[in-house]
Each structure stands twice: as structure tokens, then as C-alpha cells.
Amino acid sequence: MTSPLVQAFFVGRAVAEVLSERLEHTVTDALSELGKFDAEAREQMRQFTDDVIERANRASEAAGTGVGVTDVGTSGSEPVDTQATIDDLRAEIADLRKEIRVYPSNAG
User: Fold this and answer.
1) 56-69 per-position pLDDT tens digit
2) Structural domain boundaries in the chain
3) 0.70 exceeded by the pTM?
4) Terminal alpha carbon distance of the chain
């Protein structure tokens, strides 16, 4: 009673199921690899940052300046108020400009 048309239907359905499963596994594996890559890239960036800060601190100590570089990461540190930092820098620039204007009159 099985006609070639019914048999073709079931073969086509089986092919679609197998392709769907393989596509699902491929996409899952690709997303997994992407997640691993992202995690490794973040870890390498963190290690790079730590190495840079460590070298900067060693160079500062060797120069005898006593000025240390703090970790720029956000873990365990207070969040930086960017606007307040900008305002402080603008105030310092204004003070320096005032000093520069006064300097030529005192030098001559």
C-alpha cells in the first residue's frame, strides 16, 4: 500500500528533521565558541591592564616620585563621576591660564 509519493514524503520529512538538528548543533556550537572567545578576550584585556599598571607603579617607584597608578577597573572601586572630573579639570585649566597670563608681565 505504500506508494512512492508517501515514501518520498517521509524521506523528505526525515531529511528536514536531520538538517534541522544539525543546524541547531552547528549554531549552538558557534555561539558557544563565540562566548568562549569573548570571555578569553576579556580575561586577556584584564591581564594586560594589570600588567600595565604594575609596570607603571614599578617605574614610578624606581623614579622616586612616589606616585602610584591605581587600577582603572570598576571592580571594587568607587564609580567615577565623570562630570565632576571634567569640572575639576576645567577649573585647573582656568587657573593655569590665569598663571600664564600673569607670568609674562612678571618675567619682563
Assistant:
1) 888 888 887 666 66
2) 4-67
3) no
4) 114
